[in-house]
Amino acid sequence: MTVVSQVREDLKKLAKLAANLSEAHTSAIFLKTGLLSGAQGAVKDARSATGDDLLQSIELVAAQSLSTSIARDCRMPTGGGLLGWVVQHGRPIHVAPFDLDSATLGLYSESEPLKSLVAVPIPMPGEAQDHRAASPSCAGVLMCDSRKAFSFTKLQIKLLEETALQASRLLFWALFKAQNTTVESSWEHFRLKLDQLGDAIGSDSIEVIRVSIDSFAQIEREHGLSAAVQQSEQFVRLAQQALPPHFPLLRLPNGDILVALDNMMSAFFQHKLRTLANHVASESRPFSISALAYSGASARGRSIDLDFILQQRPTSGRRSDPAVSQKVVGGHSA
To answer: How far apart are CA 66 and CA 156, in angstroms?
Structure first.
């Protein structure tokens, strides 16, 4: 059994636990699309015309229900409907009485006579470990509904919030902790995945992006080393989560970040990097990065020569993104 399969099984157990704790008709766990998907599914989303939907929609990954009309393949946009609102704003909701059509949830294929509903956010893996975070971003939502005419109690809601936190910690330890350890420490692992990517799509289709965190020294000078490290690690973590798993990412000892991907995804991911830089930045702590993209078409030999690629001139913005060789400050070109 793969790690992802095991995580799905554990999430099903947490959904069952949540149903028992709240005496729910249905307990369901939704995660952002691509968080648990295999490489093929993630790439399909990212390369489609609506590639910005990667991690911008949520999908059902686990459910425990007395209903036979659960739509197992349901997906909805972040911010859409009650459940999408919870993910977008990171706040729980409790609706009692529930006087909406159950179809508005996007979970049921047939109408269900629901009387009450509660939904709590699942913190993004990693951010859930930082108890000082005021409002961590969301990986998904844990929802419970009932066909009984009562409100969920404060104790039940508190227990569901604890269950959501356990789901986040499960994701962190089972998926991202192992991935981050490999990504940040193994040059050979990065080179191996780069060669595998070249075998799969051809070296001419590879683009290597080198990202530098330009504001690190300024943040350290004005706010201290701890603040600079924390802000930089948050950016790297979000970048890792936004990237499909079979595209390698490595943080170099000098702090630079290398990403190898399909050149058809280059513009999309550079836009994502600017968005993440904006997310990490604040009024008191500006965050700036610069990104250069290098074409794998310049590689020589059967095995991709990464040293040679990075010694060439960066690719023009014409093939990927106009801001490729420009400085990105807080998510905007400068």
So the answer is: 19
